[in-house]
Design goal:
Helix content is 39%, strand content 19%. The protein is α/β, with parallel strands linked by helices. β3, α2 and β4 form a beta-alpha-beta unit. α2 packs antiparallel against α6 and α6 runs antiparallel to α7. The structure holds zinc ion. Zinc ion binds next to loops.
Length: 240
């Protein structure tokens, strides 16, 4: 089935497991959307405290480094709202407290569209289906329906002034069979800059840039775009 172009949503909340997930997954699209006037906010579930490659960096410093890197990456694609939920990297599961925390973010930012990671494993891409990604995708869908829209779910949220909100549309990253694409040829450089803000994760930034160019070029071909184009792919469905 031919992929359809995804137009900039009116407002977006991106929910991902680790710092850098949003940049590898969709920073090119985010840059397009913020340029078009869309407000985009990020909710990052962990501090990525299991990440990195340099054993000389004390592990206790990793969470602060990764939060700082994610904020810098966000700035490069026009995003200044970055929230961290502080869960432990590598141990995320679908719990009522995670659902409540994500529902709280949905109620606070009141997005038209939520973008998150696929809760369905992609057998062709083991790295895309990190167990934290699968758990965050599932918990986010539970937060979209029913938690954020049901005024009687997690009543402490409404008591704190976070009133029910219905998300209109969800877009999943790394779902095995995407339905939509964003042509990110014009914002590829901004995406690469955002990825390279995660210095603590990149032993060889030039090699990473080359890999990302290759992935996005393959995605552009899948989307039916010509040579020299780059795309990010999504599985999009209505949730209202
Ligand atoms: Zn990740």
């Amino acid at each position: 089935m031919a992929l359809a172009p995804l137009s900039p949503p009116p407002s977006v909340l991106v929910v991902t497991a680790h710092p850098d997930d949003v940049d590898f997954g969709l920073a090119g699209s985010v840059a397009q959307w913020t340029k078009a006037g869309t407000h985009v906010a990020y909710c990052v579930v962990t501090d990525g405290n299991a990440g990195g490659f340099d054993p000389s960096i004390p592990r206790s410093e990793i969470p602060a480094i990764r939060r700082r890197e994610q904020r810098a990456a966000a700035e490069r694609v026009g995003v200044d709202a970055v929230e961290f939920l502080g869960y432990v990297d590598g141990e995320v599961s679908v719990t009522p407290s995670l659902r409540r925390d994500i529902a709280a973010m949905i109620r606070r930012y009141r997005p038209h569209t939520v973008v998150t990671q696929s809760p369905v494993r992609n057998f062709a891409r083991i790295g895309a289906s990190h167990p934290d990604h699968l758990a965050v995708g599932e918990a986010t869908l539970c937060a979209v329906y029913p938690d954020a829209r049901n005024p009687f779910a997690f009543e402490e949220l409404a008591q704190a002034g976070l009133l029910a909100h219905t998300v209109q549309q969800v877009a999943l990253v790394a779902y095995p069979e995407p339905t939509h694409y964003v042509d990110v040829s014009a914002t590829l450089d901004a995406k690469l800059e955002a990825i390279c803000a995660h210095e603590s994760q990149l032993p060889d930034p030039d090699a990473t840039r080359e890999s990302v160019r290759g992935w996005l070029s393959t995605a552009a071909q899948q989307a039916g775009l010509g040579e020299g184009r780059y795309a990010e792919l999504f599985f999009v469905f209505a949730t209202a």
